Amino acid sequence: MMFLRGMATNASLQIISTEGLGEAWKWKIWRNISFRNICLCDLRGRKLNVALFGDLGRNFDAEQVFKQSQNAPIVAVFAGMLVRRYAGKGFTVCSTSASKYYLDLDIPQVQEFHASLTDPHKPILLHPCQPGTTFLCRATLKGIDCTKGWFYWSCFHCKRSISRDGINSLCIQGCPKNPPPVPRYKLNAVMEDMTGAMDVMIFDDKAQELVGAAAEELV
Prior knowledge:
Elements lengths: L1 E3 L2 E3 L2 E8 L2 E5 L4 E11 L5 E7 L1 H4 L3 H7 L6 E5 L2 E5 L3 E5 L5 E4 L4 H9 L8 E3 L12 E6 L5 E4 L7 E3 L4 E3 L10 E12 L2 E8 H8 L3 H4 L1
Parallel strand pairs: 3-11, 6-9
Antiparallel strand pairs: 1-2, 3-5, 3-7, 4-5, 5-6, 7-10, 8-9, 12-16, 13-16, 14-15, 16-17
Protein name: Replication factor A C-terminal domain-containing protein
InterPro entries: NA-bd_OB-fold, Rep_factor-A_C
Organism: Panicum virgatum (Blackwell switchgrass)
């Protein structure tokens, strides 16, 4: 069973559509991570969106699932998923490092689900990923964590972080050495909304607007 904040839903759900592979920024690992969205439906017609991240999303063969769905519905079983609820959006389900999925397992629960389907069969829909989609989240700034510093030395020309060989400051982009490096803000801000808290890095101009002074004035 899959439990959604007190509401139990059978983990056997029919796949009705999938999206192409996309990418999303992951703050904790400081890089983009691939994902794939899948839309599921239970026997009552209630839809549930599931996001598969990393290898789980990359290895999901959407084309093969689409071909199989031409003749019969595909029933998926998901395990080890993270379930959250957002105001105005409802439940969202995403994968974790422990997540797994199974398609058309030969088990009584899946067989019972197939037997209970009464609507005319429709093949799975394939949708392209929409990376341009944006969402608005209102959060409160709870504080700034300066335990690991609050600024970085940057190249005057490109604003990127510089490295030091013990004597000289070197720009990783190969910019000229003059003028000297400039300190710029790198604030680890703690943000919180009604669903939880997370760390967000605020750089340079945006951080200066927040503080009200240039970083070089405070170093």
